[in-house]
Description:
Blueprint lengths: L9 E5 L3 H9 L10 H16 L11 E6 L7 H14 L8 H23 L6 H15 L2 H4 L1
Antiparallel strand pairs: 1-2
Amino acid sequence: MANDKNKRTIVYIDNDDFDFYQELKKSHYFNDNSFKNIDIFLVAALVGFVIEGKPLSLDNAKKKKDYFRVNDNKNKDSMVILKSLAISKFDDVNVLSNEDKLFSLCEDYANSGIKRIYAWYNSDEDTFDNILTKELLKCWKNLDFEKLN
């Protein structure tokens, strides 16, 4: 029973960001029925991790909002990527046995990333498509392919 405190049933977002997550989900970028809350959360977490490069603690949020259930998504590809992100960050596969630590990290990166996505989405300078394309190209150019071999 001691391990139960390390288990998670829900992944949270900042309540203030919920409407934007919903707006994204309804946008033509994510309105395909195959995109679920976990997938949009994953995009936000990856933007926070790769582009922002730092987490933004969800503990500072005025109020947290339930966003998706862990067990309902345990077999989704997005869950595998979120777990991989945590393993990469902690450089320890044992983080998988502490879901609270794992998902807290992902929540913090998603909290950081969704703020950046919001800025891109509402930019007056360029379209969301163009901004996202430029950012992805920057990431691609910065990849160290030697480390991948």
